[in-house]
Specification:
By secondary structure, this protein is an alpha+beta fold. The protein is built from two helices and eleven strands, in the order H-H-E-E-E-E-E-E-E-E-E-E-E.
Length: 162
């Protein structure tokens, strides 16, 4: 159980770091690189974009201030989402479409407990209205002060992809 949870959290952390890199505000490029980038992006059928605005993250009834923006990237039929700063943000992976299913959620460290959903641990559901998503459920984690007692915390994410 611990290994599955650590793999899920590690994978989500990689998604957060990768998507945070895509959100850079530096847009200097020449015309030819831009067209090459467009053609390679469309052939790989993936995209990533960032948005600032209202997004909320609540864990165990407490709001979590993440700062930063929402970054959404679509790859292989999944929407990869990163909310907030790279080191302290939240990541989620949901399926594309109007009735998304949740593959994983990484909530990071909350009061000494690293919380996540994925690899058969925890539960989450998602709803979609246009580009706005709401993901809620129960994340599980390991409290390193008491590793034999798994923790379970309710959470809710509400965000809009650009």
């Amino acid at each position: 159980m611990k290994q599955s949870l650590l793999v899920a959290v590690g994978g989500a952390a990689i998604v957060v770091a990768g998507l945070a890199g895509c959100s850079s505000g530096d847009k200097s490029s020449s015309g030819s690189s831009s067209s090459e980038s467009s053609s390679s992006s469309s052939s790989a059928s993936s995209s990533a974009s960032a948005a600032t605005g209202a997004n909320t993250v609540t864990i165990d009834g407490q709001p979590k201030d993440l700062g930063g923006s929402v970054v959404c990237g679509t790859v292989g039929g999944n929407v990869n989402v990163a909310i907030g700063e790279a080191g302290t943000g939240v990541a989620a992976v949901v399926s594309e479409g109007d009735s998304p299913t949740v593959s994983s959620v990484a909530l990071g460290n909350v009061n000494g407990i690293t919380l996540a959903v994925g690899a058969g641990q925890g539960d989450a559901t998602a709803t979609k209205d246009g580009n706005s998503y709401k993901i809620s459920g129960n994340a599980v984690g390991i409290d390193m002060a008491n590793p034999m007692q798994p923790a379970k915390k309710p959470f809710e994410l509400a965000f809009t992809c650009p």
